[in-house]
Amino acid sequence: MKQKRYFLSEADLPKQWYNIQADMVNKPMPLLNPATKEPLKAEDLFPIFAKELCKQELNQTDRWIDIPDKVREMYAYYRSTPLVRATGLEKALDTPAHIYFKNESVSPVGSHRLNSALAQAYYCKEEGIKNVTTETGAGQWGTALAYAAKLFGLEAAVYQVKISYEQKPYRRSMMQVFGAQVTPSPSMSTRAGKDILTKNPNYQGSLGTAISEAVELARMTPDCKYTLGSVMSHVTLHQTVIGLEAEKQMEMAEEYPDIVIACFGGGSNFGGISFPFLRHNILDGKNTRFIAAEPSSCPKLTRGKFEYDFGDESGYTPLLPMFTLGHKFAPANIHAGGLRYHGAGVIVSQLLKDGYIEAVDIPQTESFGAGCLFARAEGIIPAPESCHAIAATIREALKCKESGESKTILFNLSGHGLVDMSAYDQYLAGNIRDYDLPDEEIRKSLDASE
Amino acid sequence: MKQKRYFLSEADLPKQWYNIQADMVNKPMPLLNPATKEPLKAEDLFPIFAKELCKQELNQTDRWIDIPDKVREMYAYYRSTPLVRATGLEKALDTPAHIYFKNESVSPVGSHRLNSALAQAYYCKEEGIKNVTTETGAGQWGTALAYAAKLFGLEAAVYQVKISYEQKPYRRSMMQVFGAQVTPSPSMSTRAGKDILTKNPNYQGSLGTAISEAVELARMTPDCKYTLGSVMSHVTLHQTVIGLEAEKQMEMAEEYPDIVIACFGGGSNFGGISFPFLRHNILDGKNTRFIAAEPSSCPKLTRGKFEYDFGDESGYTPLLPMFTLGHKFAPANIHAGGLRYHGAGVIVSQLLKDGYIEAVDIPQTESFGAGCLFARAEGIIPAPESCHAIAATIREALKCKESGESKTILFNLSGHGLVDMSAYDQYLAGNIRDYDLPDEEIRKSLDASE
């Protein structure tokens, strides 16, 4: 059967992002100032983020936020991304399910991350900021920010989680080709890094630690703001361009998804593809299921606790009401570096609590098996993160095969894995393993994070 | 200024390939049987290639060759590829030139190679063949064949030039993810490989050697055919889909190229983008310039000799009338593995001899400098091969700046460099060098190849 791809004309590209906070029945609980425990106002975030992003973060009233013209111009470099009917995968699984994926891997940096990087770099530039800093895991976000910063004439300093810096030297090189400064985290260049290295000189790093370092740099440096690749509500807001496009493209395919699936790190790619469809569950009585696929070794949604916690290792961020494994949680060294984060964004956390979405956890070997099957069927080698979404999709498609139901499944292919081939190499050589995570360990981490 | 991208609708995708042999004033001289020195007939090639490909190879009469439906279906997975106005690069160079590039890097395997791999795998499958074999340099072609073979249910065995096998392990992994067997060449698995390793145990390999090994395997194995990623006329034929699309897309942009540029290894990506435009020079009095950009360290077009020579190191192939450095030429270990080939395809060779096209040679450091400039301006990290085309484009664009002329330049971005980041790493660290190639060395190689 012929593969089908759907594109939008430039005129049909979204002109606004969708802010689901406006439509939520139970709004996210407020972020808290850790010292005073008072709800944060946008101004409280100004020292860290560009002002406009702070306002977007806390905006619970405006359903639609205009995408600035300059950002839309940059989006047009690579958007619309294709919506693809995965006929090869359907055939390989012999399933009656209709499987679609939104291919965000076609962006210049190879992932969905650019959708928010462009927006964040734009607002920083508009507000006269000269330098941006951030953390990155696998390097997808860091690469996106490095590229966006270059486009808008900003300098970028990226803290990359040490294990990824070493496992994925190609992404470090990509950031450097785009002109960014890249430092492995934990580093000795910040107090946060020094504290951690003093306690544990061999610590391989985590997103939580790298965030602490980047936030510290932003606070200490004039004209410098911090940017974040996921978790925050404004990041997810920017990513809704994915779902808004997908909605129109599914119309072109004359289908509507019964199930929407995405991998889950902090929630921005999941929210990005889900929220525009979820609004029809909230407003129009649709019954689409939304499944977040997280790694078994970092299961905040399936096994974490909903409570106020810090977004970073060192406790520099506001307190966030979220599903968390505790901000001191040290995730196993899985290859899906972008999913090695202890908490979930506040919007997704509230929606999970309220039963609007579901979560599954995927063992690492299952994820790579799914990735190889997909590569052979569709010709695209997925990022290790995206492999989790594919694994969850395959589970649902096989359920359809069993029941004979012809459900329509849409998943987000958040990025390609061309810069992660060493991980595939290890998988093919039988050297990828799963990580057991006893309940006790999660409890300990939560206790240590109180 | 806003970047512009042009796509074709599926209905506008080419239905035929363009066979320039039909329009050439001086047809290519015949391939010769090395034993008898008699001109080859298609049947003489049947033991090595699929029959239909042999016929295409020697077809000097039919201007248009139908693209089989099944191949067109597979093309639709990723075609049309975008034609992009490189406004970022124009701005970076401050040139009045209009620069366009055809972005072949968006194919599932990251390069133009898939255009021919799909066609070759299709014809092999149609003719009942079970196994295909080939050589690959950087791995672009091997990856394309591995993927195409998987799609059509064929087994693939790939001989990869040893220096690339080691320098570019990610591409080896990609081929393996797609299910191919990959062997570093020279290997002990063939007589050709054994002979070379006996003489020089540390030989780093070349495309010429790897071709010998693959051809030997195809000859010795029932149900197995050899496939080639460039050089041969049927490969270039398949690649004309690039130029045919570009022609329509340039019309959408309301421009016609004054200059067409592509990097040059064996000639298929160069011919692919050039020939559809070149036909208007031949037939309609257009005056477009066509520039092949080859590496200074492997300069067959600019410094080689036009003569009959073998296509491979061991002399298994027919004798080809071509510009060559001698089939015993051992190219320096540049990162653009796909350009490390001693000869040029017979069509391009004849056209160069007759003055229809030009060639320039690009030093390695200039190529990577051009690649980094392009990456920062356009957000796409080009393959080391494609960097040569970009360098040649920059030279022409800077000439326009000097003269104030607003020429329209089109180049082919044959592939992305995401799997070549270690080369960029070395470039950024100042560890990339150029290679001097004295005339005497070329003369010696030509003498040794008599």
Q: What is the 3D shape of chain A? A: globular
Fraction of residues in helix of chain A: 40-55%
Output mean pLDDT of chain A: 95
The total of beta strands of chain A comes to: 15
Low-pLDDT ranges of chain A = none
In terms of structural class, how would the helical and strand content of chain A be classed? alpha/beta
The CATH C-level class name of the domain at 70-110 and 234-449 in chain A: Alpha Beta
Strand order of the largest sheet of chain A: 1-4-5-15-10-11-14
Q: What share of residues are in beta strands of chain A? A: 15-25%
Biggest interface pair, residues each?
A: A-B, 38 and 38 residues
Q: Number of DSSP helices of chain A?
A: 18
Q: Termini of chain A, distance in Å?
A: 55 Å
- Second rung of CATH, namely the architecture of the domain at 70-110 and 234-449 in chain A: 3-Layer(aba) Sandwich
Cα-based radius of gyration of chain A, to the nearest Å: 20 Å
Q: Quaternary state, please? A: homodimer
The description of the largest β-sheet of chain A is: 7 strands, mixed
Instruction: Determine the CATH topology of the domain at 70-110 and 234-449 in chain A.
Output: Rossmann fold
